[in-house]
Amino acid sequence: MADAALRLSEITEQLTGAPPPLRIRAWDGSVRGPDGTPALVVRHPRALRRFLWRPGELGLARAWVAGELDVEGDLYEALELLAGALWERADTPRRLPTAGQRAAARSLLALAGPWPPPRPPREEVRRRRGPLHTLSRDRTAVSHHYDVGNDFYALVLGPTMVYSCAYFSPGATLEQAQHDKLDLVCRKLGLRPGQRLLDVGCGWGSLALHAAREYGARVVGITLSAEQAAYARERVAQAGLGGRVEIRVQDYRTVGDGPYDAVASIGMAEHVGAAAYGRYARRLHGLLRPGGRLLNHQISRRPRATGRAETAYHVDEFIDAYVFPDGELAPLGETLGALERAGLEARDVEVLREHYALTLRAWVANLEAGWQPAVAATSLGRARVWRLYMAASALSFERNRIGVNQVLCVRTSPAGDSGLELRPRTWRE
């Protein structure tokens, strides 16, 4: 069809009531839209089929991953413009489509061609089986995300191999900021030589190594990812810390060798889920000695005032399908309530939202700088998934759509003793 970009622009305006917020470059070479903006490149009509099959974010994401949809220009600016056109309208009341919108949808269907779109490759989208948050299903979900390949993650994360929010000071590099985050966690936990630390969701072993090397702690790190565990064990051996650090492939629900002086859960609780969160909090409480501390570092979402009953946990369709299967986000208040109901006393909350935006932008820059090796280490589809989700997440943190918080809790003694001294906060330097 001649001038497909014009038809897409017209259809978009009929469907949404506004012209496209960015340029459209179609498969026939035609271009329409406002000058000076990034271009949404529609490389094939299949992208339209995917959008019609799964309207909104997920359909667009599937077209992106398949390479049928791309961005020419600044990716962050393009995502921000699309967010204003699509995602920020998600909470508006739904109305029946008008006659003009129904006609536009028929035009889009005709432009899209044969129906339905092809299914995504099996390795990119996890197929779900069995009840939610069983031991086996959680193990499969974690493997989908973390067993992408250690070489791929090394390119994205850099030498620290830390896959959670860094802690930036002015002018700090990503590597310095990740070191400072690990040290912040250890100081909040009050680690001393010989104390036992349980690192729940230990990743590639960075916190375990830091706590053992810098604070003399004896650390057990647990993960459900076999690839992470193998990498972490190699790092422990190379550092000569085998006598102080043990890495296990183990679910937190099966840990039975407490009590521990401290427990760190950094970027792991998002995988726990609404139904299991109370059990998670009670389990960690039970693994702590009286006076022991828990540092829970977790992404949160904003509460919604929708006029309907609030749903405490939120699942993002694209993230759930392609990135973190079965992951759920809760408002900070819900997390605090669950930890307190488990018997833990919340002693400090620190919000790191802006820090995570900086972290994600640094990871995207690493991925883009090492694009060809990253693709070779995993696949083109997976690399495109990670670039999209990290860039979109950076914007979500910057715009306060989601947050991330460190919550320090204590298991008090039966007499109510927290073990904390009466003193000002000392972990921020």
From TrEMBL:
Its EC number is 2.1.1.-. One of its GO terms (biological process) is methylation. Belongs to the CFA/CMAS family. GO terms for molecular function: methyltransferase activity. Pfam families: CMAS. Keywords: Lipid metabolism, Methyltransferase, S-adenosyl-L-methionine, Transferase. It comes from the Bacteria. This is Class I SAM-dependent methyltransferase.
